[in-house]
Amino acid sequence: MPFLRYHILLFLFLAVFCETFAAAVGYQRSLLRSLGEGNGQPDYAVDLNSSTFDSILKESPASFAVVEFFAHWCPACRNYKPHYEKVARLFNGPNAVHPGIVLMTRVDCAMKVNTNLCDKFSVGRYPMLLWGPPPKFTSSGWDPNQEKSEIKSIDDARTAEQLLNWINKRIGSSFSLDDEKYDNESTLPWNATDPEQIARAIYDVEEATSQSFEIITDSKRIRKETRAPLIKFFQLLIAHHPSKRCRKGAAEILINFDELWPLHLSNSSQNASTSYARDVTKSFPICGKEVPRGYWIFCRGSRNETRGYSCGLWILLHSLSVRIGDGEAQLTFTVIRDFIHNFFMCEECRRHFHEMCSSAPVPFNTTRALVLWLWSSHNTVNERLMREEKELGTDDPRYPKMIWPPKELCPSCLVSSSSKSGHTMRDWNEDEVYKFIMNYYGSSLVSSYKDGRVTDRIKDESVDDVITTTHAVAVPVAAALAIALASCAFGALACFWRTQQKNRKRKSSN
């Protein structure tokens, strides 16, 4: 009997463990997985559970979310799933037709691990659909008797057509189940001159940062002579990137820089295969494991080859420029110049940018001077590309290049403009332009920039320790100190590390 009781208890323990474990890893397997039901079709809706519910919804770049509460044993739920998936295909995943607008999710209430979660949202039938801004699902539950709630019940959604019609009415769109990627773009509720749109660009800044890291590792451009410029760029990201998780990821990479790219190894031996690059980006995702997402939101073009990465990179550079201190202006200019020169793969773009940097009014002694130079340079690039793309017919008809900012965004920025010999002369109020840019790429850009510590990991190791453990210490340390002085966290940690280093030296000499 004791032997039998032991095996029964062991069996029950394993059953509960397996169910809990499956729930905990469910999101990782189900973001875009095979259904395993013989049809081989991808599962577009994101499976949530009590462990992943808050984090996924909180981190979602989407403006709205639909949560379907169902039970896997429910025949009506199984029959409804194809309808729900037809709508989820439009909004979810790297190949989404209309990404970043609605996050389509589901929760299996038949799993015991989700019991409290389903109770929190008063689930009384299957399937049950709720709609609302993603953060609202994490901050509170839902009660059908609650009058004032941003979470709404979707009652008329028995078919895919009905569900999509409900969404269209809710957000003023005209999406269709037949939409394909980059088709029917006019249905998007988008206004390029709406100042609130920049708030969503933080996700594109993360995407551009992640893609930059992938390009750097894939292109095998990390060599002895490019180590110092890359290290300095990581230092700049750690100090001033507008995304907290990108700051943390850059610090993790810098901590392990020598192990990832040892100085004594040749370029061919350390980057012998593309699998090495994949391993690096997988082990050290610079902006978190959710990034890259595979799509653009603010920087999305009407065609696959327009906007995207270049747009996201420009926003990253502008957002860095508005966050530095006066004493960092010249250093930041040098870091950006060297990063583009060494790691931007478009040769003509790299050459044009280098020419603009060569004629820049250096040294930059103030943040204002750097911000306005970068703004002016961006407009110079846009003006050149406007002419070229118009002649070649390669422009994006929905998002043509423009001189920025337009009057709709900043009425007081442009004083006057006139044409002479085929060239447009513009008189800008640079004080107004500077004020606008600082707000647009600063406070208006959704950011956790001012949140807490630079990284959660660095306790015994300081950020300055992260920087000075590299073999390329002679150049990067000076850069690191210049960047560090602008940040209280960096300054304090730098002092701590220096003290620790001196103590170590004294001990070793005794």
Give a summary of the structure in a few sentences.
With 510 residues, this protein is of the alpha/beta class. It has helices at residues 2-24, 26-30, 53-59, 75-91, 115-120, 134-139, 160-171, 202-218, 227-240, 244-255, 257-260, 267-270, 274-283, 309-321, 329-343, 347-358, 367-392, 430-443, 463-468, 474-484, 488-509; strands at residues 46-48, 64-70, 102-108, 128-132, 152-154, 414-420, 423-428.
Verbal overview:
Mean pLDDT is 76; it is low at 11-39, 183-191, 269-274 and 447-502. It is globular and about 70 Å long. It has 2 domains: 22-187, Glutaredoxin; 195-443, ERV/ALR sulfhydryl oxidase domain (Four Helix Bundle (Hemerythrin (Met), subunit A), Up-down Bundle). 50% of the residues lie in helices and 7% in strands. The protein is of the alpha/beta class. Helix 4 crosses helix 7 and helix 8 packs across helix 14 (309-321). The termini are far apart. The chain has helices at residues 2-24, 26-30, 53-59, 75-91, 115-120, 134-139, 160-171, 202-218, 227-240, 244-255, 257-260, 267-270, 274-283, 309-321, 329-343, 347-358, 367-392, 430-443, 463-468, 474-484, 488-509, and strands spanning 46-48, 64-70, 102-108, 128-132, 152-154, 414-420, 423-428. InterPro entries: ERV/ALR_sulphydryl_oxid_sf (IPR036774), ERV/ALR_sulphydryl_oxidase (IPR017905), Sulfhydryl_oxidase (IPR039798), Thioredoxin-like_sf (IPR036249), Thioredoxin_CS (IPR017937), Thioredoxin_domain (IPR013766). Pfam families: Evr1_Alr (PF04777), Thioredoxin (PF00085).
